[in-house]
Amino acid sequence: MAIINRIGEFAGDMTTWRRHLHAHPEFGLECHDTAAFVVEQLRSFGVDEVHEKIGVSGVVAIINGQGEGPTIGLRADMDALPMDEATGLDHASTVPGLMHACGHDGHTAMLLGAARYLAETRNFKGRVALIFQPAEENFGGAKHMCDDGIMDRFAIDEVYALHNLPGRTLGAFYTTPGPIMAAVDTLVVKLRGLGGHAAYPHDTVDPIMALVTMVQALQSIVSRNLSPMENLVISVTQIGGGTADNIIPEEAWFGATIRSFTPEVREMAQRRIREVIEGQAASFGVTADIDYELGYPPTVNDARAVEKAIEAAQEVSGAARVFADQGREMGAEDFAYMLQERPGAYLFLGQGEDGAGVHHPAYDFNDEAAPFGASFFARLVERLNPV
Q: Which region, left, alpha or beta, applies to residue 213 given φ > 0 means left and ψ of -120 to 50 means alpha?
């Protein structure tokens, strides 16, 4: 393995930065204190430009290399999750109801580490655009930053990102060309019937019966309307209705998530979901209010960018620990919006086989993974824009 020596020397600083961020999580677009901490570090490194409040609280910093060349974008997300921490660590969250349960504190620390090294050495041509983004988890911070024009404003030619991967070999890299993460859409259906005494169901129009049948029928879309060679997930995750065992309620509701990779499958799923719900509603005599929200698009890696990323990762971790056939994940990622505007690649970084998974209250980023991620970003820039 070939972690960059200089990055290895200040690995302890990355741990300090990361644990500070972990103890002070922020949510959604309002990552102002996190951004201020990032800016403070970037200025101490001597980067050439710092631009703040992009996409509400996002930061873009520029490091100039030696002579003319392309601009390479490197992105890290900064936001935390709305959940209570159960690690008991000295650096555990100090904010009730918020914790860094997905490792964005680690992502930020890794990009800061790469920034420090690149600002010191400048062993590349062109420029690096360091993108520190809020609101990956909930509100599409990547889209907010793209809508604020970062790709054109900073003349970014390619863009890359890393995400930690618990349960996999420490320092190993995983990616794939083409779609790597799914589009995510959200469904909420509110049903209205006629409530009444549960002993006299014939005098009511029961929304619970309609709801149960709808939920079952929706599962037939994947098994009967989709080619077995395609990918689609329809998961009903919330159901509500009723107040007592002897009352048939007036209203009931359910919610679902829908995951897909192609526009064709995405459109088919939306169409068939509406058809199934409306048909079942008519058959049971209830009305259905359908709120179908299109969320993040699929995260689609550029094939050539994946090749470049693999070469850089192999320099850091060795060919045996770089996997270019990771396959698709049904999770979603708003980095997709950046990849819609520029070619690039999204990779996973193994953070060890022990410990809790992401979005778990006992999760904590493994600081031993940070030098691998920072070294990858640095080597990638040096390979893409060699002096």
A: alpha
According to the model, what pLDDT value does residue 141 have? 98
Token output for 221: 């879309």
**Helix (H, G, I), strand (E, B), or coil: what is residue 74?**
strand
pLDDT given for residue 1 in this prediction: 55
Distance CA 131, CA 149 (A): 13
Rounded distance, CA 74 to CA 82, Å?
A: 26
For residue 344, which amino acid is it? G
Cβ neighbour number for residue 355 with a 10 Å cutoff = 15
CB-based contact 4:91 (threshold 8 Å):
no
| φ, ψ (nearest 5 deg) of residue 198 | -70, -15
- Summary mean pLDDT of the chain: 97
Confidence class of residue 44 from pLDDT cuts 50, 70 and 90?
very high
CA distance linking residue 76 with residue 62, whole number of Å: 14
Residues 40-55 have a mean pLDDT of 98
Yes or no: say if 241 and 201 are a contact pair by the CB < 8 Å rule.
Answer: no
Q: What three-state secondary structure class fits 264?
A: helix
The C-alpha atoms of residue 266 and residue 258 are separated, in whole angstroms, by: 8
Q: How much of the chain, in percent, has pLDDT values that exceed 90? A: 99
Phi–psi pair at 133, nearest 5 degrees:
-115, 135
pLDDT average, residue stretch 361-381: 98
> What confidence score (pLDDT) does residue 326 get?
85
| C-alpha to C-alpha distance for 369 and 75, rounded to whole angstroms | 17
Note the pLDDT of residue 269: 98
Give the residue among 200, 364, 181 at the shortest CA–CA distance from 260. 181
For 318, the 3-state DSSP assignment is coil
- Is it the case that residue 15 has pLDDT exceeding 70? yes
Residues 6+ apart with CB under 8 A from 247: 195, 196, 197, 198
Return d(Cα 150, Cα 141) in angstroms, integer: 12
